Q: What sequence folds into this?
């Protein structure tokens, strides 16, 4: 996948397929530590303990529609290519947490991509699921939470096109405001 947002979309879709009613997506850019952390946490069915050590094997999947599962293996490869790692924690009946760590300024790190579009897709396709998206750049934070949005919007649904346009634009502007999704050291060299 060319952008990390596509990995996030894939992992979140796994959460939804596992019956999650809430999904947290947290991204942290720690500039001094040169660290990018992506965490997706859900309250879905979870993964059986026996299956957990094999979730990054592309030929092991719980799906019955196909015999391969590439989402987690591709994310693991992307993280390791950038001096990072992938961790998957899960408990049956309680949910799963996927954490990918990358060296933030690694030359081979894929760009974050369009998180506004990614969240818009997730919300539009799943308007009754609660999503939390938090993005930190050092001490600056952007947060979007659908529970809060539902309270403000009242009878207007989260899948309303005007709401989705607002979500996309708000995320894009919010991330720009906090200086998210850049390659800080590489950008200094290029200037």
A:
């Amino acid at each position: 996948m060319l952008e990390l947002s596509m990995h996030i979309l894939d992992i979140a879709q796994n959460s939804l397929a596992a019956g999650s009613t809430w999904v947290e997506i947290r991204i942290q850019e720690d500039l001094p530590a040169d660290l990018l952390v992506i965490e997706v946490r859900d309250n879905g069915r979870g993964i059986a303990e026996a299956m957990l050590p094999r979730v990054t094997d592309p030929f092991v999947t719980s799906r019955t529609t196909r015999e391969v599962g590439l989402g987690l293996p591709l994310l693991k490869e992307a993280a390791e290519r950038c001096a990072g790692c992938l961790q998957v924690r899960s408990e049956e009946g309680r949910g799963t947490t996927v954490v990918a760590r990358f060296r933030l300024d690694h030359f081979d790190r894929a760009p974050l991509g369009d998180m506004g579009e990614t969240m818009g897709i997730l919300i539009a396709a799943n308007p009754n699921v609660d999503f939390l998206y938090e993005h930190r750049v050092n001490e600056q934070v952007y947060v979007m939470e659908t529970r809060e949005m539902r309270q403000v919007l009242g009878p207007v649904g989260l899948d309303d096109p005007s709401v989705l346009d607002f979500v996309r634009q708000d995320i894009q502007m919010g991330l720009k405001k906090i200086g998210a999704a850049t390659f800080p050291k590489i950008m200094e060299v290029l200037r």
About this structure: The chain has a mean pLDDT of 89. The chain is about 35% helix and 25% strand. The radius of gyration is 17 Å.
